[in-house]
Design brief:
The protein contains twelve helices and twelve strands. The chain is of the alpha/beta class and 409 residues long. It binds pyridoxal-5'-phosphate (PLP).
Length: 409
């Protein structure tokens, strides 16, 4: 939050901390102001539509700059600002805007920068509903999308046209886990005057710092690890500088999108424990992935933190950790056998989303949605989320599942 005098309301002690401390420490304090709230540790939840002004003068001033403070519920309250400040700290960006869902964060960021006649580039591995937004909505408004091979790296230059405005990345892709060479793409984009955005949900914002690599906008489905408990829908857009932030904030305001106060509260609360949760998701995910590598039913484990993974070099270079989400390609079993496997599981729930405390499994058919590349893989594909259960129980569950699979094969 920025005060009327242009300063953030941190005192000098807090400012010193911000410079010196590690991210894990900053996440326990970012956006909190106990001294402004009776010493209460967490920010209060403000439910608001109307804001009453003390005078016409105050009202006039607010109309001149409605983003400077609290002007109307939809534009944000101190609960919203506390969450956004914590997210900006997490992502290492300038400022954040919170919206109603992760998908809404992606679409709002795109709409903030494109106009009729523009062209955008989107990775063939992007979140599927973003692909649908590009092909079924942006086309109606005269914005064309070209999907590109996620492994394109610096060769993205060959796809840039005179009217290319934006490059959308997602690394790793949240179903197929290809790693993108973000710094190489950003360098080409900068030189060509093209903006870049990344869906940073997989890293939780903690294990990948997009702004260090030249990204302009970083998006998260805060629905996933930030909230962390499968109980809210929330999205964030973090911008590299004030100009970009204003573009997004104005667009969100024009669209009328709004993150609800209880969800912002849950989001900022989740950030306090994000580092420990992610570390456990990572550990459980890697244990599962290594165990799965040794199973005869599995053709390939798709997890960039494994040395055998084609994306491992980039992951190791750019990331400081992995979350609990990865994929497996099975040997060519039939659908009835795979369905029986999934139906037999007790620890792993069958469902969309991820980033909550619980383990999930979902079948997927990536080959069916690709347009720029072919998804190589013949067997059934499953996406797994390693939750916070004991990993021995997770492994035992899948072991039982595999015996069901083999019985049906
Ligand atoms: C879930 C997800 C989204 C969308 O988030 P919602 O809050 O469900 O709208 C966007 N990107 C990725 C990578 C996701 O996994």
């Amino acid at each position: 939050m920025v005060l009327d005098n242009g300063e953030t309301p941190l005192n000098s002690r807090e400012r010193r901390q911000t410079k010196a401390m590690k991210k894990e420490t900053l996440l326990t304090t970012a956006g909190r102001r106990p001294r402004e709230n009776y010493g209460i540790v967490n920010p209060p939840v403000y439910h608001a539509s109307t804001i009453v002004y003390p005078s016409v003068k105050a009202h006039d001033e607010s109309r001149k700059n409605k983003f400077a403070g609290v002007s109307y519920g939809r534009v944000g309250t101190p609960t919203t600002f506390a969450f956004e400040e914590a997210v900006a700290t997490l992502e290492g960006g300038h400022r954040s805007v919170s919206v109603s869902s992760g998908l809404n964060a992606l679409t709002t960021a795109v709409l903030a920068v494109v106009k009729a006649g523009d062209h955008i580039l989107a990775s063939d591995s992007v979140y599927f509903p973003l692909r649908v937004f590009c092909t079924e909505m942006l086309t109606r408004f005269g914005v064309e999308t070209t999907f590109y091979d996620p492994h394109v790296a610096g060769d993205i230059s060959k796809l840039i046209r005179k009217n290319t405005r934006l490059i959308c990345m997602e690394s790793p892709g949240s179903v197929t886990f290809e790693m993108q060479d973000v710094p190489a793409i950003c360098k080409v984009a900068r030189d060509a005057g093209v903006l870049t955005m990344i869906d940073n949900t997989w890293s939780g914002g903690l294990y990948f710092q997009p702004f260090k690599h030249g990204v302009d906008f970083s998006i998260q489905a805060a629905t996933k690890y930030i909230t962390g408990h499968s109980d809210s829908m929330l999205g964030t857009i973090t911008a590299a500088n004030e100009e970009h932030w204003l573009l997004v904030k104005q667009t969100a305001t024009k669209l009328g999108t709004h993150a609800a106060p209880d969800d912002c509260y849950l989001g900022q609360r989740g950030i306090r424990t994000l580092a420990v949760r992610l570390s456990q998701h990572q550990e459980n995910g890697l244990k599962l992935a290594r165990w799965l590598q040794g199973r005869p039913e599995v053709a390939r484990v798709v997890h960039p933190a494994l040395p055998q993974d084609p994306g491992h070099r980039i992951w190791k270079r750019d990331f400081t950790g992995a979350c609990g989400l990865f994929g497996i390609m099975l040997k060519p079993y039939g659908k009835p056998a795979v369905d029986a496997l999934i139906d037999s599981l007790e620890v792993f729930g069958l469902g969309y989303s991820w980033g909550g405390y619980e383990s999930l499994i979902v079948p997927s058919n990536p080959a069916s949605i690709r347009t720029a590349t072919q998804f190589d893989g013949t067997g059934p594909y499953l996406r797994l989320h390693a939750g916070l259960e004991d990993s021995e129980d997770q492994i035992a569950d899948l072991e039982r599942g595999f015996s069901v699979l083999n019985r049906h094969a």
